[in-house]
Amino acid sequence: MNKVAQNSRGVLYNITCAASSGTLVPNFVAQAQAAGWKVCVITTPQGTKFINIPLLQELTGYPVRSEYKRPEEPDVLPRADAIVVFPATFNTVNKWVLGISDTLALGILCEYTGLKMPIVTVPCFRTGGGLDGHPAFFRSLQMLRDYGVRVLYEPEKYPPKNQVPPDVILEVLDETIRRHTESRNKADMDSY
Predict the structure, then answer these.
(1) Rounded-to-integer distance, Cα 14 and Cα 86, Å
(2) Which of 24, 27, 128, 186 is deepest in the core (most CB within 10 A)?
(3) φ, ψ dihedrals at 108, nearest 5°
(4) 59-111 pLDDT, tens per residue?
(5) Judging by beta carbons within 10 Å of its beta carbon (0-12, 13-18, 19+), is residue 52 exposed, middle or buried?
(6) Of 61, 56, 65, nearest to 24 (Cα)?
(7) Longest Cα–Cα distance in the chain
(8) How far is residue 179's CA from residue 160's CA, in Å, rounded to a whole number?
(9) Cα–Cα distance, 87 to 180 (Å, whole number)
(10) Once rounded to an integer, what is the mean pLDDT over residues 52-59?
(11) Is pLDDT above 60 for 184?
(12) For every residue of the chain, which 3-state class applies, written as one string?
């Protein structure tokens, strides 16, 4: 198991989907751990085919979850302080924005969006393939932004699949957390 920095930044869920960019998840996890995060990986059921589950379990020290647990079973993952959805698919983005909660990954995303927790999403699929031109996709990205989710979608900067480097994702996550904290502190001050 990879050693996490002593002053842990908290628990980060990396939610991953059924995308060929899933091969990049171990590198993202390692960089997040180096930055002080305790990382747990959750994937969509179809996403299990795109990631190296034994490697991710070894890196994180936690099971990779893709299914809901039974009610009598204990939680095996700690609660998250923040979420990075990388790679996010067209399917997950569009279901998430509508509040569809038919997988564990989507259920967590809907829950944490409702809790207004810091979330960064990185849609990763081939540009020019049709999905990136579908009107529902851009509407969904805007709705996620309206919900307070930070969307990292710059395919012209990260061609051909918007595979944003882990250090950039982590910088955006830090900025998102800082804004979230400032917003929460301002709300607390306004309540006096």
Answers:
(1) 7
(2) 24
(3) -65, -45
(4) 999 999 999 999 999 999 999 999 999 999 999 999 999 999 999 999 999 99
(5) middle
(6) 56
(7) 52
(8) 30
(9) 22
(10) 98
(11) yes
(12) CCCCCCCCCEEEEEEECCCHHHHHHHHHHHHHHHCCEEEEEEECCHHHHCCCHHHHHHHHCCCCECCCCCCCCCCCCCCCCEEEEEEECHHHHHHHHCCCCCCHHHHHHHHHHHCCCCEEEEECCCCCCCHHHCHHHHHHHHHHHHCCCEECCCCCCCCCCCCCCHHHHHHHHHHHHHHHHHHHHHHHHHCC
Look-up of token digits 């409702």: 114
CB 40 within 8 Å of CB 12: yes
Q: How far apart are CA 112 and CA 176, in angstroms?
A: 14
Closest to 2 (Cα-Cα) out of 51, 76, 58, 84: 58
